[in-house]
Amino acid sequence: MGRLAGRRAIVTGAASGIGRATAELFAAEGAQVLAVDRPDADLAFDHPAIAPLGQDIGEDAAPETIVGKAVAEFGGLDILYNNAGISHGAPVADTTDEAFDRLVAINLRAGFRLSRAATPHLAASGHGRLIFTASIMARHTDNGLVAYSASKAGVVGMMRTFALELGRHAVTSNAILPGAIATGMTAASFQREEVTAVWAKKAALKRLGQPLDIARAALFLASDDGGFVTGQALGVDGGLMLRV
User: Is 81 among the catalytic positions?
Assistant: First the structure.
């Protein structure tokens, strides 16, 4: 029996990187998984327990569509992993209202709306799990990350409020803060060996993180092993920020 046997999960941003690794790991551990990503994304999976759904999480009807699909498909919902996100880098002076609003809409507002829609089902499960992908840039920042850091810091603050309000229903709420991870979003940068070498050298473990590293952290939080962990922002960065 896997650690998620009988559990029903939603994973957003599931077409690549962290989301794909998590959907596959959750399914391998016994969960039924609704894998959500944009309609044009590659949502082909080999595992029969993974059901794909092409849906832009930023659309008005997305929460009802996604949660409704999971409940109809699986008969309920135990785990929501809000992993989908976007990035944008520009100096403050060059960050337009539209770019800022787009990051907040996808990285923060969409996760709030989806979590709100899922809350009754997570509470009804008796062991609900709410997980968010934030970033180490929720606690730190760098040049050009005004919108990204703001959106991810918002995710951590939002996660804590969900933890406080949902704890009475035995629902946990936590965030994962990845460091430098070789994912679909960062693939272009990390294809350059000199860039990879710089970021690997910064980490205490002297390597980039892989999507599976984050998926394993999500598995811990989603399983009974993480049942007494809530309201936490878990850094999974290979020791990248130890010297900051």
Answer: no
List of domains in the chain: 8-181+210-236 (3.40.50.720)
Tens of pLDDT, residue by residue over 43-63, are 999 999 999 999 999 999 999
Considering only CA atoms, which of 96, 132, 93, 97 is closest in space to residue 112? 132
Q: Taking Cα atoms as reference points, which of 101, 84, 93, 100 lies closest to residue 41? A: 84
pLDDT at 41: 96
Task: Give the C-alpha distances (Å, rounded to integers) separating 165 from 5, 56, 63, 116, 121.
Answer: 27, 27, 20, 12, 15
Which of 132, 148, 162, 199 is the catalytic position? 148
Contacts for 191 with CB less than 8 Å, ≥ 6 apart: none
